[in-house]
Amino acid sequence: YRELNFASETGGRVTQVFFDKGSLVGEGQILVKIDDEALQRQLKIAQINLEKRKRDLQRFENLSSANATTTAQVDEVRFAFANAEQQMADLQEKIAKTSVKAPISG
Description:
The chain is mainly alpha-helical. The chain contains two helices and three strands; from the N terminus they run ββααβ. It has helices spanning about 35-65, 70-95, and strands spanning about 15, 30-35, 100. The chain has a three-stranded antiparallel beta sheet with strand order 1-2-3, with no helix packed on it. The chain is rod-shaped and about 70 Å long. The model has no long low-confidence stretch (mean pLDDT about 95).
């Protein structure tokens, strides 16, 4: 029998506990779930934003191939798309951290 103290990388209200005190757990097993409702809402907004930025980029690239827009405008739209992609990745990482996993088996 080993006891391990650990901390989550994410703060918040625990919504689910997936083990009983004193039970054996496997490395990587989810032990607790922290409330991620607000993050999930942010993720939906980020998905909508990413889709819009993707469509904008396609439109501007089409305009660019017809010499109907400036390079600076296309670059700005590319930057906005890349920024939206990064926001999605950041939120997905934060959501993943709301599942606290056992660092070792025991």
